[in-house]
Amino acid sequence: MHTTIMGAALLLAIATPNGVQAQTPATQPVKGAEAVIVSYADLDLRQPMGTRMLDHRLKTAARRTCDTASLPMDHYLVRHWCIRDAVADGWAQVAARRADQYAGRPTVTLAALRTRR
């Protein structure tokens, strides 16, 4: 049986001026998908340490969702691509939410990296 790992998508929780409020996910759950919540509400992304910590959290979450330990060794590249795409997608979502923040719109403080196998 051939297993394919797709790139990561993000589920979001929105922070409003009244606190954190869960919203309906932008994507629907997919059978066989795993999700890992990545919070950066406690990080100051204007500081280098904050961005390093978020990068570490995104990579850790991506490794968890892209785990292929039970697959043959030739799937190593698939796992590598999955992690790379998940982290890049996470950063793209953070950048989009920071733009919303600067524009005075609600900001994201939680995201879930999801992969589909």
What structural class results from the helix and strand content? alpha+beta
- Which oligomerization state do the chains in this entry correspond to? single chain
Counting DSSP H or I runs of 4 or more residues, the number of helices is 2
- Low-confidence segments: 1-31
Mean pLDDT: 65
How is this structure best described in words?
There is one protein chain. The protein has 117 residues and is α+β, with helices and mostly antiparallel strands. It has one domain. 38% of the residues lie in helices and 25% in strands. The chain is built from two helices and four strands, in the order E-E-E-H-H-E. It has helices spanning 48-65, 76-102; strands at 9-16, 19-22, 33-39, 107-116. Strands 2-1-4-3 form a four-stranded antiparallel sheet, with helices on one face. Strand 1 and strand 2 (19-22) form a beta hairpin. Helix 1 (48-65) packs across helix 2. The chain is elongated, with a radius of gyration of 15 Å. The termini are close together. InterPro entries: UrcA_uranyl. Residues 1-22 form the signal peptide. It comes from Brevundimonas bullata. This is UrcA family protein. Keywords: Signal.
